[in-house]
């Protein structure tokens, strides 16, 4: 298990702040595997981070594969 996996496993259920910040970074950088992990761990693909959704962040940085995964995972394009 990766370091993030260990950290997530030890987090309290209600504390998703770290995971949400991690999702923003993964979407912007095109880290598709991390995006998949975070969604599997319960991060909502429609979560807003500083006024931008994950989908907006991935699209802004040209991360086509992340955009595709977010849409497949239920991200709303509107």
Question: Strand share of the residues?
Answer: 5-15%
**Uncertain parts:** none
Q: What is the N-to-C succession of helices and strands?
A: HHHEEHH
Rg from alpha-carbon coordinates = 12 Å
Most strands sheet: 2 strands, antiparallel
Helix content: 55-70%
Average pLDDT score: 87
Placed side by side, the strands forming the largest sheet appear as: 1-2
Number of DSSP-assigned strands: 2
**What is the global morphology?**
globular
Q: How far from one another are the termini?
A: 35 Å
The helix tally amounts to: 5
Would you mind describing this structure in some detail?
It is a single chain. This protein has 78 residues and is mostly helical. Helix 2 runs antiparallel to helix 3 (32-40), helix 2 (17-29) runs parallel beside helix 4 (54-60) and helix 4 packs antiparallel against helix 5 (64-72). A two-stranded antiparallel sheet has the order 1-2. Strand 1 (48-49) and strand 2 form a beta hairpin. The protein has helices at 3-10, 17-29, 32-40, 54-60, 64-72, and strands at 48-49, 52-53.
List the keywords.
78 residues, mainly alpha, two-stranded antiparallel ribbon, 2 strands, globular
Short description, anyone?
The protein has five helices and two strands. It has helices at 3-10, 17-29, 32-40, 54-60, 64-72; strands at 48-49, 52-53.
Can you lay out the helices and strands and say which pair or pack?
Elements: H1 3-10, H2 17-29, H3 32-40, E1 48-49, E2 52-53, H4 54-60, H5 64-72
Antiparallel strand pairs: 1-2
Helix pairs in contact: 2-3, 2-4, 4-5
């Amino acid at each position: 298990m990766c370091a993030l996996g260990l950290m997530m496993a030890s987090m309290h259920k209600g504390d998703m702040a770290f995971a949400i910040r991690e999702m923003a970074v993964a979407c912007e950088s095109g880290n598709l595997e991390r995006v998949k992990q975070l969604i599997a761990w319960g991060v909502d693909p429609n979560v807003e981070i500083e006024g931008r959704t994950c989908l907006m962040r991935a699209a802004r940085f040209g991360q086509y594969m992340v955009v595709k995964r977010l849409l497949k995972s239920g991200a709303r394009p509107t």
